[in-house]
Amino acid sequence: MVSKKLATRLAKKKNELANAEDRVKVLKAELATLNQQVQLELVKQLQTNLKTDDLTEVANFIAQVDPTQVPADDGGEQDGY
Predict the structure, then answer these.
(1) C-alpha to C-alpha distance for 75 and 55, rounded to whole angstroms
(2) What single DSSP character describes residue 75?
(3) DSSP states of 23-43 as a string?
(4) Whole-angstrom Cα distance, residue 49 to residue 61?
(5) In this structure, what DSSP letter does residue 80 have?
(6) Most buried among 3, 33, 42, 47, using CB within 10 Å?
(7) Predicted structure pTM score
(8) Contact at 8 Å (CB) between 58 and 52?
């Protein structure tokens, strides 16, 4: 049999772990929601820039984009950097 002090510490740590696991679940859900919001905002920006509400056109545009292609540097600053 273990000492009461050690058993109490173990119980406390198990409780801390359970709380941390619950927090991880909440954070994962929040992250998923934020990712969806970001994707929606990006699609809306593309719709505005492409001047279309047709999601098929937006999807076709996305499929044609080369993500490794870097635009030429025009010497201007972006996002205040």
Answers:
(1) 33
(2) S
(3) HHHHHHHHHHHHHHHHHHHHH
(4) 11
(5) T
(6) 47
(7) 0.62
(8) yes
- Give, for all 81 residues of the chain, the pLDDT tens digit: 889 999 999 999 999 999 999 999 999 999 999 999 999 999 999 999 999 999 999 999 999 988 777 767 666 555 554
Please state, in angstroms and rounded to a whole number, the distance separating the CA atoms of residues 1 and 4. Answer: 9
Q: Is the dihedral of CA 5, 8, 14, 15 positive or negative?
A: negative
Instruction: Return the half-sphere exposure (C-beta side, CA atoms, 13 A cut-off) of residue 33.
Output: 6
Structure token digits, residue 53: 């509400």
